[in-house]
Amino acid sequence: MLRILISMGSSVFLQLLFLYIVISGLLLDFNPWYAVIVYISVAILSLILGIYSIVSSVRESSNVTLLIIPIGVVTT
């Protein structure tokens, strides 16, 4: 249960960091390619941690059915 909370918290933190970086445009002042790499890296890490926390929580409660349409993952 603690691992799920940590991964969910990490995912939310990464999403907020991504939002802050995008809104402030902080990285665009340095180098556009560097900004693209950082944006994509933070987004992918956030996505992976979010999916991990969802799948872990579904595995703990086996009677829950989860459908993630954009990714195409069905977990029962």
UniProtKB/TrEMBL annotation:
Keywords for this protein: Hydrolase, Membrane, Transmembrane, Transmembrane helix
Transmembrane spans: 12-28, 34-55
Transmembrane recorded as keyword: yes
Any one GO molecular function term: hydrolase activity
Name of the featured protein: Alpha/beta hydrolase
Organism: Bacillus toyonensis
